[in-house]
Batch of 2 targets.
Target 1
Amino acid sequence: MKKILVTGGTIFVSKYLAEYYTLTGNEVYTFNRGTHTQPKGVKFIKGDKTEVSPDLKKYSFDLVIAVNIYTEKEMLNLLNSLDDFGDFIFISSSAVYPETTPLPFKTGQPTGANSIWGDYGTNKIAAEKVLLSAKPDSYILRPPYFYGKYQNIYREGFVFDCALNNMPFYIPKDGKMPLQFYNVHDLCRFIDSLLDIKPDIHIFNVGNKEIIDINKFVEVCYDTAGKKLNKIYVDSSHNQRSYFPFHDYAYYLDVTEQYNILPDTVSLYDGFKEDFDYYVNHQDEVMKKSSYYKYIKTVLQK
C-alpha cells in the first residue's frame, strides 16, 4: 500500500486516478478547494493550488501525481507545500510542442509556443522546467486528447448526443484530419508500469498508437451508441470550432517509448463504448455547448 497524493481529484482525469488508486488498495489523498464531491474512500486535504499550503507539510507521500497544475507558479506552490515525498508524476500536455514541429511529435524535439494552445502550452512548459529543476527524477507525461469515464469536456459527448437525437453529423472538410486519444485507464496502467520499472527516461509522450481521422472518430461514436450515421461534409469557409468540438489542428505523438513499457492499450471501440455507457447516465457532469447546435441550425441547415 502506498500513500498517494492526487492534486485535484474531483474532476475527470484526477478523479479517475484517485478512484483507481483507492480501489487498488492504496491510501489516497486529494488536494483541492472542496467545491466538488470527493471520490469515495479518499482522504481530503483542503487547499488552493494558487498558494502555498502548510497543511500538506503534515504528511509524507510515497507518490505525488500532479494533474491540475497548469502554471509555473502553481508548480512552485505545490513543491513548496510538500515536505516528505517519494516519486512525482506530472501530467503535462502535448500542447508543449510548436505546431511547426515535424510530425509525429517526439519527446526529443524542442518545446515552444504553439499558436493553437497559446498560454496553456507555454505555461505547461514553465511548470515542467520548475519541476525538473527541483526534482530531476520526476516523470513528465505528455498526452493528446484524454477520453473515458468521468469525461467532463463536451467532445465525444457532443457526438453521442447527435447520435442519440438521430441527427446527421456535420464533418469538417473531408474528415481526414488525424486525431489521437488516450484512455484514462491506460494512464493509470502506464503509471503503474512506470513506477515498477523506473526507467532512465523521464519524459514520455503517452497515447494510443492508433491514429484515427475525424471520419473514424464519428463512426466509432455512432456505432457505440447503436445509431446509423449520416455524414454531411462542411467546406472550409466555416469555422470548424463553430460546430465541431476539436480545433482545426492536425497533430499526433510518437508514443514508442510508452509502448516499450506498456505494450497494449484499450481498443478505441471498447474505450468509447465504456465512455458512452457512462455518459448516458451522467450527462449533467459534462459542460455542454449549445452553440454547436445553434450554428448547425441557423447556418449549416439554412
Target 2
Amino acid sequence: MIALHNLTVSYRQHPALHHISGKFAPGSLTAVIGPNGSGKSTLLKSIVGLLPIEGGRSGGALAVQAPRQRIAYLPQLSEIDRSFPLTVRDCVLLGHWGHAGAFGRISQGMQASVDAAIHTVGLQGFEHRAVGTLSSGQLQRALFARMLVQDAQLILLDEPFNAVDAKTTASLLQLVRQWHEEQRTVVAVLHDDAQVRAHFPQTLLLARELVAWGNTAEVLTDANLQRARSMAEAWDDAAEICTVDA
C-alpha cells in the first residue's frame, strides 16, 4: 500500500526523517512510535502529501497505491481549528467531499450514511452542536465518524487517543479493529507502548532514522527502545546538512 525508499524529509534544511525505507502492506495495522521529535507526524504528513520529500542520488521516493480520495488523514487535535463555524453533522458530511465535491449533490444515501456514522460513534443528539463546543473526546468521535463516511482505503491517524478519556479510547479502538478486519490499511502514530502491544500487530519505531520495523513483539524490545532513546538524545540539530545517500 505504501512504499518508502530512502525517504528523507527536512525542515530548514535539516532532516526530520533520514533515509527511511520499507513497506506498509495492504490491510496492515501499524503503530508508529518513537521519542518526541523522532519524525512520526512528519512521516504521516509526507504520506498524505503535505510535506515535500528529498530525492538524492539514489532516488528517494514515496509511493502510495491508493487514490487521493480514498485516503483519510486525521491530524493531531491541537492542529484542528475549532473556531470554524461547523456543526457536528456538517463535519461528518465532509467525509463525502471526495465523491460530491464543492457543488455536488448530497444524496439520501449519503445523508443516511452520516446518520449511521454519528450513531456508531455515540454522538446522536449532538448533530447540531458546533464543533467548537465539543470536548476533546467528542470532537475525536466526530472526526472518526467523518472517516467512517469517507470509506477510505488508507487511514492515517496522528495521536488519535491523545487527550481523550479511556471510554472514548476504547470505543475508537474498536473502530480501528473494524477497519483492520475490513482489510483497510491503518497507520497510527501512538505513544503508549502498552496500547501498541495490545492492539497493533505491526510497529515502526523511529528516531528520525529507522530503528526497527516489523512484528510488534519483535520491535518493542528493551534494546530497541533504548537504542531509539539514545539516537534521539544524540541527534544534533545543528549538524551539517546530509548530502550523502544511505
